Amino acid sequence: MTLENKQEKNKFTLWLLAWPIFIELFLQLLLGAVDILMVSRISDDAVAVVGFSNTLFHALMTLFMTIASGAGILIAQKLGSGKGADARTIAIMAFNVTVLIGIVLSVILYLIPRKIAALFQLSEQLLPLAEVYISIVGGGMVLTAMMATLSTVIRNTGNTKAPMYIAIGMNIVHVFLNYAFIYGAFGFPQWGLTGVAISTVVSRLLATVLLVIMFVGAFEQRIAWSDFKLFNGKLFKEVLKIGWPLGVNMSSWVFTQLVIFTFLAVLGTQELAARTYMNTLESFCFMLGYSIALAVQIQIAHLFGAGRTKEAYSSAYRALRIGLIVVSVNALLLYVFGSQLLGLFTSDQEIIALGVSLLGLNLVLQPGKMLNMALGNSLNALGDTRFTMIVGILSMWLIATGLSYVVGIHMGWGLVGIYLCMIADEYVRGGLSLYRWHDRKYLKRAEQKQAQQTLGVPKSTQSSSSVV
Fold first, then answer.
1. Mean pLDDT value across residues 425-449
2. Alpha-carbon distance 10 to 266, whole Å?
3. Is 412 a domain residue?
C-alpha cells in the first residue's frame, strides 16, 4: 500500500471522522441552547416561538437536504472507488440545486411569515413574535441551504475538521451578537427577539463565506468559477436515487414533529415550552451518539465504494456498541442534574416538573434512538435508502404521531403520553434496521458483483486490515 493510499485510508477511520463532527454538532447545539437560554430572559412566549420556528425551518430544510444527503453518500462512495472527478462534479451540482431551493424558501418565509405560523395553530398571542422571527431567520434560509450542503460535501471527502473550525467561529460571533442585541451591550440597540434573529443570520452569513472558500479547494482539482456550470445527468440521477428516499424520510420525521407541536400547542404554552427546553437538553444527550452515526455513515460509504464489504459490515456494530455506552451515560447524567439544568432556562415550577418527568423517560429513549441512528445511517451509506424511508414513514406517522394523538390528547396522558409514543417509534425503526443490516442484502449483492468482475483474474492483494 502506497503512502498516499494509507493517508486516504486514515482519513476515514471512525475516530478521526467522529470527533470533529461531535465538536461541530456540540457547538451547533450550543448555538441553539444559547438562543433558548438568552431568549428565556425575554419571555417563555419568545421561547415557544423560537422552538416552533426552528422546527418549521428543519422541516423546510428537507427540501434541499434531499440533494445534499444523497450527494454526500455518493461522494464518499466515489472517492472510495477512486472516482474523484465524479465526486467533484456531484458536489458542484448539489451546491447549485440547493442554492436555488434555498432562494425560493427565503422569499416565501420573508413574505408570509404570519400566515405560515397561523397555519400550524400557533396561538394568537405568539403570532406577532413569530412574524418577526420567521421573516428574518427564514429570509436567510438560502444561507442555511448553502451551509448544510457545503458542510455535508466537505465532511464526506473525509475532512470533518473544516466544518468544525467554522462552527467554532460561528458560535463565538452568535453568542457575542446575541448578548449585545438582547441586553443592549457594547453600544448595540436592545432589540430582543429581533436582535436574536439578526444575530443568527449574520453568524450564518460569515460561516457560509468561509465554507465556500474551503469548498473550492476540497477536491484534488480546485473548483473554478466556470465549473459551477457543470451538470451530468447520469450522476444527478444517482444522487436522486439515493437522495429522494432520504428526503422523504427526513421530511416525514420533521413534519411529524410539527404535527406533534400542534398537539402540544393544544395542551398549552407550558407544555410547548417544556418540550422546547427538553429538545435542547436531549440534543446535548445524544449528540455524541449522533456524531458516531454520521461518522460511520461516511466510513461505510467509503468502504462500500472500495469494495471492502466485510469491514463495512463490522463497522456498523462497532459504532453501535460505542454509541450505546455513550448515550446511556449521557442520559443518566442528564437525569441526575435535570432539575438544576432546567432551572437555568425557566423558574416556572410546572414547566420544570414536566421536564424532569421527561428526563426519566429519556433514559429509555436514548438507547433506542442510538440503535435507529447507527443502523439506519449504515443502511443509507450502502444506498439502501428506500427501506429506511418505508419503515420511517409507517412508524413515524402511525406510532409517533397517530398513537401520540390517541394517548396524549384523546386519552388525556398529555406530554408524557406523547413522549412514550416517540420512544416506541425509535425502537420499532431501530429494530427493523438491525434486522435489515444483519440480512446483508446490499453487501451480498456487492460481493457477487465483485466475484463476477474478478472471475478469471488473479486475486487482489488488497489489504484486509480493518478500519477503526
1. 92
2. 51
3. yes
pLDDT mean across residues, the chain:
86
Query: What is the rounded radius of gyration, in angstroms, for the C-alpha atoms of the chain?
Result: 22
Q: Count structural domains, the chain.
A: 1
Q: Would you say residue 463 lies in a domain?
A: no
Is residue 1 scored above 60 in pLDDT? no
Q: Which three cell numbers stand for residue 253?
A: 420525521
CB 320, CB 240: distance < 8 Å = no
Instruction: Report the residue count for the chain.
Output: 468
Sign, CA torsion 25/31/35/37: positive
Residue 363 CA to residue 343 CA, distance in Å, equals 20
More confident residue, 211 or 64: 211
**Measuring CA to CA, which residue among 269, 279, 385, 209 is closest to residue 58?**
279
* Distance separating alpha carbons of residues 5 and 80, to the nearest angstrom: 11
The sign one gets for the Cα dihedral 423, 417, 349, 361 is negative
Q: 100: domain range?
A: 7-450
Q: How far from the centroid of its chain's Cα atoms is residue 452's Cα? A: 38
pLDDT band for position 459 (50/70/90)?
very low
Q: What confidence tens digit (pLDDT) does each residue in 145-160 have?
A: 999 999 999 999 988 8
Which residues lie below 8 Å from residue 7, measured CB to CB, with a gap of 6+? Answer: none
Specify the residue for cell string 456494530.
317
As a whole number of angstroms, the distance between CA 117 and CA 128 comes to 10
Separation CA 52–CA 46 (nearest Å): 10
Instruction: Report the amino acid identity of residue 424.
Output: A
pLDDT band at 446 (very low <50, low <70, confident <90, very high): confident
Residue 225 is classified by DSSP as G
All residues at 6 or more sequence positions from 213 whose CB lies less than 8 Å from its CB, including other chains: none
Residue 174 lies in a domain: yes
Is the CA virtual torsion 238, 241, 244, 245 positive or negative? negative
Which one, of 467, 178, 423, 419, lies nearest residue 308 by Cα? Answer: 467
Asked if residue 468 belongs to a domain, the reply is no
The single-letter DSSP state of residue 466 is P
Question: What pLDDT is recorded for position 32?
Answer: 67
Q: Per DSSP, which regions of 323-375 are E strands?
A: none
CA nearest neighbour of 252 among 106, 400, 366, 105 = 400
